[in-house]
Amino acid sequence: MIRLRALRDRFRGSLFYVPSLFVTMAAALAWGVIRFESGAVSSGGSRGLLLSVTVASARSILGTIAGATITVAGIVFSVTVVSVQLASTQFTPRVLRGFLRDRFQQNIIGIIVGTFTYCTLVLATIRVTGSDSDEAASPSLSVTIAIVLAVASILGIVAFIDHSARSMQVGHIIRRVTAETRERIAVLYVDRSDDDCILDEIPPEPDGEPTVVRAWEDGWIQQLSERVLCEATAPGSYLRVDSGVGAFVVEDTPLVTVWGDDAPDIARMREAFAIGAERTMQQDVMFGIRQLVDIGLRALSTGVNDPTTAYEVIVHLGSILSDVLRRDLPPRVRNDPEGRTLVLSERHDHEAHVKRAFGQLRIAGAGQPAVLIRLLRTLHLLDELMREVGPEDGSRSAAGDLTSRRDAIRRQADLVIATAEHAGYIEADLEEIHREARDLGFLPPGVPATGAGHGD
């Protein structure tokens, strides 16, 4: 199942898969229409023709449509390549995957190449015998369908240009990445306490010689099935996952270490991992955060210097963190009903999500007081959100755990303030940041602009 999901995700990000389906459907449509018209001509019955055309005019129309659509197809592919190059240069190469996965774009390309396929196949079967005025020998229905497809292609091209122009806007890209990341959070960060026995502490590793399952190729770990890992080991086994989702592994890198009375099924355990050439968001929420952070870093770079884009990135990161902080993250240790213990060597906690979202932007934005103020305001919104969250919001965490999430937010706010104090601002700018911090509750009243009272 995990390999099928990986294959489906690969097809979804391909510009070949959907257009090839349209080509196949166009070929089937052409074959069906040709067979229908051949039967209608043989019977000599009325076919309820929509258009009355001669053989010569039909060949001319079909040839014109086929030539025009294949030319436009080349233009569409060129526009797509240019859009991808611009997005890679202006934003970050990691957003290219979203452009290639755009289903609207794939459908438009499919319509265009499908129209070309249909017209070419019909054109190849038109009979040249008989008089040009012999309507019984003219493919009127085929031509009518070709004209309908041509009109659909024209409208699709206009829609494609409009869609491409909109999809290149930075706000659209940020919203798309945010929406996909929040969707992944809703799927991956769910309460699974009823399915497994969750342990608060990592139990000691058993004695004896373990079995190490190693990577068979280089690549990114895109998916991991913990259920398959457990099924491949004997009851009572102890499993330590050494390389998790989002990690890059080279050949022979340890993936899982297993202690147990019986040897595990290594081939089956390898089936629990999907390793690919590129990082994906299938089970990797951090990759969504990474994409937004990269856009913000590019905007704050010296060559671009676009703090407004950085503002937009920060507020959308706040939207993602609001979902993360209100949820209990997948546990690091669990037992299954047959006594197996599964331990994740590395698991990103709530504080790691906050650091990943704001840490680099805080450093890159040190030269922009307005960026640091926007960080403080976003952190304040998250802090206020955690004041209101409770068990009724779907969290099984105790009050102490919710407090630790607030502490992670406040530690990041302290780092923002410390960054401002060491950035060499003039007194007026530094005082503005301190005043904002006091108003938001990150500094006690009366603290001078010396950094007193700050710490981790």
Q: In a few lines, what is going on in this structure?
A:
By secondary structure, the protein is an alpha+beta fold. Helix content is 58%, strand content 8%.
Which structural class fits the helix and strand makeup?
Answer: alpha+beta
Distance between the termini: 45 Å
Number of helices: 15
Taken in chain order, the helices and strands follow as: HHHHHHHEEEHEEEHEHHEEHHHH
The biggest beta sheet is recorded as:
6 strands, mixed
Question: Which geometry do the CA atoms define?
Answer: flat
Query: How do the strands of the widest beta sheet line up side by side?
Result: 1-8-9-4-6-2
Radius of gyration: 30 Å
Indicate the proportion of strand residues: 5-15%
Total tally of structural domains: 3
Low-confidence blocks of residues: 129-136, 449-456
Mean pLDDT: 83
Helix content: 55-70%
Note down, in words, how this protein is organized.
The chain has 456 residues and is α+β, with helices and mostly antiparallel strands. It folds into three domains: 2-168, no CATH class; 198-276, Aldehyde Oxidoreductase, domain 3, CATH 3.90.1170.30; 284-331 and 346-439. 58% of the residues lie in helices and 8% in strands. The chain contains 15 helices and nine strands. It has helices at residues 2-12, 17-43, 55-90, 96-100, 103-125, 140-167, 170-188, 226-231, 266-270, 285-300, 307-325, 350-364, 369-388, 399-421, 427-439, and strands at 197-198, 211-214, 219-224, 238-241, 248-249, 254-259, 273-276, 333-335, 341-344. The strands form two sheets. Strands 1-8-9-4-6-2 form a six-stranded mixed sheet. Strands 5-3-7 form a three-stranded antiparallel sheet, with helices on one face. A hairpin with a 5-residue loop joins strand 8 (333-335) and strand 9. It is flat, with a radius of gyration of 30 Å. The model is unreliable at 129-136 and 449-456 (pLDDT under 50).
